[in-house]
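Input structure tokens:
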């Protein structure tokens, strides 16, 4: 069985298992990276001819360890690649396409990512002030989704797929259908955000909440560009990606509540271990307060 043929079947299995499109694309990208390296090494790419030594050579090779721009990959990115290969070749072994799993000896490195980077309180307020006075339909749309991420902690992908019918104004919640791992989440809205959303929806026709010129939801890439533009206009520095808005929400909520379980519930994390990264932020604030 050729590597790319096995990959096609693996992606079908992932879809059947309910894995998200983002997850499937990552597996596809990682296995194709291996396939390209094997081709450059003159290897046939037959999964039954791959050994753990060959896979180790790939993971140690520059093609695996450098980014598209030529820089070194972060340890967490290399761990993601290792995990993809372990899952893929475990599937190939279970499917009977190779006698042994060539990734059986691959281990994830022990590492932790940097603390999540959000906006400072000052930059957060500058951004919202800039959006409040901005004029035009696109500005009102951007103000709404940015306010939503800053004050509910929703992920960008889920927010951009929201439709009018997903908002329950009586209960003060959003029922988000396109969340991570295809989960449905109940997002509780604070009163000010709910009032903003009510006014925004009053001006719109039924359908998607955040649309572009073609009437379809704006893309993640377009949203990222728009956020970068607003941050620049507001004179904000530091983190400029949409996920920083979610980090900002979580950091402020932990500071206000002092309860990691509350933050876990608000972010929709299945395991509280995913939420503990925000304790690092609290540690950084303690160090700053101590003057060290």
């Amino acid at each position: 069985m050729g590597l790319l043929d096995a990959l096609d079947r693996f992606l079908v299995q992932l879809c059947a298992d309910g894995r998200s499109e983002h997850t499937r694309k990552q597996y596809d990208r990682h296995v194709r990276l291996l396939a390209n390296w094997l081709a450059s090494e003159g290897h046939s790419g037959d999964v039954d001819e791959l050994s753990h030594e060959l896979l180790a050579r790939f993971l140690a090779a520059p093609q695996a360890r450098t980014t598209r721009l030529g820089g070194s990959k972060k340890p967490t990115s290399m761990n993601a690649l290792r995990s993809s290969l372990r899952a893929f070749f475990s599937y190939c072994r279970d499917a009977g396409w190779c006698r042994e799993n060539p990734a059986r000896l691959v281990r994830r490195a022990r590492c932790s990512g940097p603390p999540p980077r959000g906006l400072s309180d000052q930059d957060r307020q500058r951004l919202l002030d800039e959006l409040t006075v901005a004029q035009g339909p696109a500005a009102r749309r951007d103000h709404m989704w940015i306010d939503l991420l800053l004050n509910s902690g929703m992920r960008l992908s889920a927010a951009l797929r929201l439709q009018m019918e997903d908002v329950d104004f009586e209960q003060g919640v959003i029922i988000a259908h396109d969340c991570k791992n295809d989960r449905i989440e109940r997002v509780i809205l604070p009163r000010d955000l709910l009032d903003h959303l009510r006014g925004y929806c009053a001006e719109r026709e039924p359908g998607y909440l955040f649309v572009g010129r073609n009437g379809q939801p704006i893309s993640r890439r377009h949203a990222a560009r728009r956020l970068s533009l607003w941050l620049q206009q507001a004179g904000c520095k530091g983190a400029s990606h949409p996920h920083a808005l979610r980090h900002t929400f979580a950091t402020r909520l932990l500071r206000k509540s002092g309860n990691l379980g509350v933050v876990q519930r608000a972010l929709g994390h299945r395991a509280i271990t995913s939420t503990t990264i925000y304790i690092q932020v609290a540690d950084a604030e303690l160090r700053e307060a101590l003057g060290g």
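Strands lie at 167-168, 173-176, 185-188. Residues 212 and 222 are 9 Å apart (CA to CA).
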